[in-house]
Amino acid sequence: MNRMHTESDNNHAARRGMGANIADPFFAEGLFDALPDVVFFVKDVEGRYVVVNQTLVQRCGQRHKSALIGRTPAEVFAHPFGQTYQAQDLQVLAGEAEIEDQLELHLYPNRDPGWCLTRKHALRDAQGRIVGLTGISRDLAMADKKNPAYRKVAAAVHVIHEQYGQPLQLPELARIANMSVAQIERYFLRIFHLTPRQMIIQTRVDAASRMLNGAASVAEIAQACGYGDHSAFTRQFKATTGLTPTQYRQLRPSRDCA
């Protein structure tokens, strides 16, 4: 136990020593500029952008980082997306929650939807006070079809895509893939970078967003996408897209004209 404490103390001391010698604490900005599939940002205690990478600039339809610095998401993104992101930031800045691999559907400047996983963590000073936040939003990668377990897991994925309107239980998906529950969760993450539950949500929200272009009611769409409870569907859809189903439907005409 004493050895573990000693190693931990040494690690903290090394980090503090190096941190004190680094002239620019935001040295990672240039590294994240080289990642076209990752959005990176640092915000101050008011939720205003302090550091952004070039990918975020492009996703916002801008050319220069100066167009974002000093502004909040509500001032950068179209309504109501910006307000949703800002509310999320304020929760993190208040110490209420940190975001860990939140599955989100974003709209890019050309109005095409894209799936990503978002993380947001509070930044604290030496006294433990929150002084800002940092985060990344990573585009979902293509499936690793070279993984030896891909075919077995793909059988479960096929069921999700074909039967998303039905109750889908993890033990049944594991049985279809001829795996244990622990194995299928592990291989889903390795191959698709998603948990089985996240893929079910992604598939259902994708289907719902397409149905919202038609005449079906929100209640009918909720039922068709596997949500017996209309309010549960609305909560999940908003948590994933930042919009209620009704707001998404109202936004659609402007997307088609973009």
UniProtKB/TrEMBL annotation:
Residues 154-251 form the HTH araC/xylS-type domain. Pfam families: HTH_18, PAS_4. The keyword Transcription applies. Keywords: DNA-binding, Transcription, Transcription regulation. Gene3D superfamilies: Homeodomain-like (1.10.10.60), PAS domain (3.30.450.20). The keyword Transcription applies. This is PAS domain-containing protein.
